[in-house]
Amino acid sequence: MLGTLLIGLREGLEASLVVAILLTYVHRIGRRDVARMIWLGVAIAIAVSLGVGAILTFGAYGLSTQAQEIIGGSLSLVAVAMVTWMVFWMLRVSQTLSHQLEGEVDAHLDGAGWGVVLVAFLAVGREGLETALFVWSTTRGDANWFLGFSGAVIGIVVAAGLAWGITRGLMRLDLPTFFRWTGYVLIVVAAGVVAYAVHDLMEGGIIPGPFMAAPDGAGPFVQSWFGDNAWAFRVGETIPPDGFLAALLKGTIGFTPEMTKLELIAWAAYLIPTMTCFIRLDRANRKRSRAAREASETAPAAA
Amino acid sequence: MSMRPLAAALGGAATIAMLAGCVPNAAPDGAGTITVTSTEDTCDVSTAETTSGNITFDVTNSGSRVTEFYVLAEDGLRIVGEVENIAPGTSRQLAIVAQPGSYFTVCKPGMIGAGIGQAAFTVTGDEVAVSEDDQAAHDEAVANYKAYVRNQVGELVPAVDAFVAAYVAGDDETAKSLFASTRLFYERIEPTAESFGDLDPRIDYREVDALAEGLDWTGFHRIEKDLWPPAPGAKNSDDTDANEGWTASTPEQRKEFGDKLVADVAELQSLVNADDFTLTIDDITNGAIGLLDEVATGKVTGEEDWWSGTDLSDFQGNVEGAQVAFGIVEDLARSKGDEGVKLSDTIDQEFGALNEELAKYGNTTDGFVDYKSLTAEQVKGLSTRVDALAEPLSQLTSTVLGIPSS
């Protein structure tokens, strides 16, 4: 039971985080209607995942490992692109909101509303299929399958609760700070997704990694990316992958106890430029809004 | 940014990936299922050997930690199939389409490191049949080739009727002029005719072969010797006296041989038009190779049409038949990755070169030069081209059927 609970937690945490941040965000800018659309996106993603998962589990045909990994890996990369777009979009919207008028309706959201829904859909649907396959499989075990099944479901619920808790904490911040921090959080989460998208594609045999032998006659440099040489570290003995800490780390920052060099490079290659870009834009914004505030304080107030 | 095309593209890509990655799940009764039990320190697989095809591993975690199960390729690295997240007390299934070869099975209790209980796993038997997409392409190719065979036999029947009528009537000039053009229809589909037991020997055996096998000598070549009777002292292709044991047919015998050929060709027609006339894709690809072998062993030596000298026309017929067979499976071959594309390009090119070489000596409409007039040099030029084509063509079966050539 604890085993399945932790798997559910690990698989559900990062999607929950993205969705919770999104919901909080549209709530703060007073767009309840978009919140409903986000819930719709999440509901569709869950329904599709469970439906397809059930067909593949109980139907005549399953999905080959390669296909699963390739679908998962590719969707992860799309999800990263969408989340990145969302972070910068939120930043742009937040500068158009005057801080006195929190909840002011912004025109940006009309066009981007569906984008936000798609982000929610992808965040959930990306790992949804794998999670659904896992949840359904728990029902095929021994007589007391219900324990395992409940564990999995409870794990997902706990993940949602944790995400909600984290976001609640951020709720108390004033709006600009809230945007900044959720931006940081989302970029770190997305970097983690990049890392294990790479891992999925390695397992699918698409890119070189520990699951591929080096080509014949490869030099030492080439060889260092294949087979056992491809690992950067393997600390599974120190941080058990089936434990609570590992579940928490993977579901948030994307850290797993065994990572390859290429995963780390991909992680850094996404995180460093994106974060730099975000911080610089944010600084420029704050400077501008401070200048605007000072100007408005010296000018006679318009009725 | 517009979301709709993106969503559509995503959906499309996912669908394609799904279709390409379909593996049949185990039968509900568990037939063909291999059980795997993973514990803290063991990874028991119920059998270390199975036959190729769709196999399902039913992996039960009897340990106290979450486990994973992998099937690895021969190099011990590439993942052929895996199931993760098998919680204690639960079981998950892994379905794979297994080709013959050596594999490894391994469990990873606690999801750590290189895993536990890595064991050799052998898959015996034949290459697994093709995917459904390929099957559809195969069916289409077979249908097309069947239609081609039926069409050629359909042309052969009236041509034989006219040829035999002239021969039986003693109109040798007309019969001689029809000989090569009539045989063309037969030569194009020769491998199919050969698949019907003693039909090809009755229709197309040469004198020396019929004698060697103790058969009654009938068919095209019996008629040919009547139309181009050997001069006194002429030799057969095996250097025996051509007139020994041979006399020109009487009008009654001509009628007998003529009717026999008509009847045999009619039988061929009913066989290829029967509902139970079946072909497989390798009949087509191997048929193409068979046609070229015909050329290399029979036609190039000039033994086929020893008296008429019309070997080049038969040669052309064999090449055309091979080219049609190849054309029918070409798309299929080209769908098999770079190797298939490269091979098809080579075959295309070689067909072109061979046809060019043949065109130097005539064509099917106006006839070809007498084979005996070719110099040794020219014969060598032809046989070099035939060999250059036979080599890539012989790899066609493995490429089209996706069987790795060892």
From TrEMBL, chain A:
GO terms for molecular function: ferrous iron transmembrane transporter activity. Belongs to the oxidase-dependent Fe transporter (OFeT) (TC 9.A.10.1) family. Pfam families: FTR1 (PF03239). The chain crosses the membrane at residues 6-26, 38-64, 70-93, 145-166, 178-198, 264-281. Coiled coil: none annotated. One of its GO terms (cellular component) is high-affinity iron permease complex. It is a multi-pass membrane protein. It is found in: Membrane. This is High-affinity Fe2+/Pb2+ permease. Keywords: Membrane, Transmembrane, Transmembrane helix. The keyword Transmembrane helix applies. The keyword Transmembrane applies. InterPro entries: FTR1/Fip1/EfeU. It comes from the Bacteria.
UniProtKB/TrEMBL annotation, chain B:
One of its GO terms (cellular component) is periplasmic space. Transmembrane segments: none annotated. Keywords: Signal. Its main location: periplasm. It comes from the Bacteria. Residues 141-396 form the Imelysin-like domain. Pfam families: Cupredoxin_1, Peptidase_M75. Residues 228-253 are annotated as: Disordered. Residues 14-111 form the EfeO-type cupredoxin-like domain. The keyword Signal applies. Residues 1-26 form the signal peptide. It is found in: Periplasm. Belongs to the EfeM/EfeO family. This is Peptidase M75 family protein. It comes from Pseudoclavibacter chungangensis. The lineage of its organism: Bacteria, Bacillati, Actinomycetota, Actinomycetes, Micrococcales.
